[in-house]
Each structure stands twice: as structure tokens, then as C-alpha cells.
Amino acid sequence: MSPIDLDHVLTVLGAAAWGADEQSRARLAGALALTVYDGHTRDQGTPYMDHPLTIITLLRTEVSVSHVETLLLALLHDALEVTPESEALLVRHLGGPFTYRLRAMTADHRLEQRPKAVGDETRWHFKQAALPPEDLLVRLADRLHNLRDLAASPNVDRRRRFLQSLEDFYLPLAEVARGLSPQLEAMHGLLHAEYVQQQEEVRP
């Protein structure tokens, strides 16, 4: 597989159809993403950069997202989780408001670079439930891709935990949010369909 470069990132974003200012911002965000995710892999052994690019494709093709800032948010949604020390770089190049949105999408223990503690899971749920619609859409798309990717994970317990979390938290959250936009309505349907399929696969 060829290494992912900036031109590939811009193609996945669909940036050729954007205005000049948006293309310039996309090039900046793409270069930052390549820097932030460089050298990191997911537990499946794949380059980390594959994950945000898959989410962007999911949002564009399955949920009809075209809003530039939402797609750039998807590109960098895990930046502060993977490389918390990149926050100053992100603020400098993409601005404080954009970086604040990334902070709101990142679990506190990741931002603080410490092990998960008692109460962190509850705080994380409250944090996600408080996200504005576009940011929540990205977070739900992230969850959907993680679910679809479970079969490639060597962690046997991961599937059980993700399905339980989907049933207990993400599906109810998507149900509450589905009326906020057509995209969130579509995302709810995708998450529900994935849940049904995964349940059928684990059923004896």
C-alpha cells in the first residue's frame, strides 16, 4: 500500500470542489493530520491515518456531509488523543475555536495523559452528550467505524465492550439526537443497522 500523502488526504476530503480559502485551510489541516498521526497505528496494526480518512468517506458518502469544517473536524478528531502535545500547534494554525472543539471531543484522561480513573467514563458520556450536532455527528461516525472494524481487532474483549457501550449509551444518544438534522437521522439508522448485524453475528 502506498504511503498516504497530502494529495490523497485532499482527494478524500473532496477539497477540489471547495473555494480557494477552504482549500488552503484543508491543505493546512491535512499537513497537520499527517504530522500528528505519523508513526501511530491502531490496534489492528493499520496506520492511524486510515481511521479519520475512513470516517470522512463515511460522512461524505453515507450521510451526505459536505460542510468543510465538519470534514476537517473528522480529519483531526483524534489528534489530541493520539498526540496531546500537538494542541499548541493546532491552535497556532487552525485557531482556538477549532481546537476547543477537538478538546470537547476528547476524553479527559487522554488530554491529561493519565490512565483512566473511576468516574472518567461517566464524565466522558456527559461530555459527548453536550456536543453540538455537527461535532456529535463526527463522534458517532467514529463509533460506527470502530464497530465496523471490530473483526480486524486482535482484542477479543473489545467486541463485547463496544457492543455493550453501543446498546447502553450510543444508540440512546443517537436516538435523542436524530431529529436535529437529516445527517444525524441517517447516522442513527446506520448505528442501529450495525448493532443488529453485530448481534446476529455473535448469536450462538
How is the topology of this model organized?
Elements: H1 6-13, H2 20-37, H3 50-62, H4 68-75, H5 79-82, H6 87-94, H7 96-104, H8 108-111, H9 120-129, H10 133-148, H11 156-177, H12 182-202
Helix pairs in contact: 1-2, 2-6, 3-4, 3-10, 4-10, 6-7, 10-11, 10-12, 11-12
In short:
The protein has 204 residues and is mainly alpha-helical.
SSE string, helix = H, strand = E? Answer: HHHHHHHHHHHH
Major beta sheet summary = none
Stretches where pLDDT is under 50 for at least 5 consecutive residues are none
* Beta-strand content bin: under 5%
- The assembly state of the depicted protein chains is single chain
Mean pLDDT: 93
Helix content: 55-70%
Task: Give your account of this protein's structure.
It is globular, with a radius of gyration of 17 Å. The longest helix is centred in the last third of the chain and has 22 residues, at 156-177. The protein has helices at residues 6-13, 20-37, 50-62, 68-75, 79-82, 87-94, 96-104, 108-111, 120-129, 133-148, 156-177, 182-202. Helix 3 runs antiparallel to helix 4 (68-75) and helix 10 (133-148) packs parallel to helix 12. The chain is an all-alpha fold and 204 residues long. It has 12 helices and no strands.
Features:
204 residues; mainly alpha; globular
